[in-house]
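Annex B. Sample input.
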Amino acid sequence: MLKYFKTRIGRLRLLGFLEGMSLIALVCLAVPLKYLYDAPEMVQMIGPIHGILFILFVFATFSVSIEYKWSFSKITWKVLLSCLIPFANFYVDRKILKGMEKEA
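Annex B, continued. Sample output.
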């Protein structure tokens, strides 16, 4: 776990994991509970956490993109899009970010 804190890409990967898990919890657990069982408590709890993680992930992506001089049309948009689609963060982490962290 400490290996993620050594590089900026590692911290982005960790943030992506946390953001992806919060999105899955929100979409697969909290929202169904809210609408099927009229229990909005989980959305009220997970929603703001996910929102903060989402904003941090977007800022971190732009920060890493500028530092490593990523091409927006080749890399940055894919990383940004991954935070909008459930499970996409994990795919982008494995296919794009993991290899870049090894190079850094």
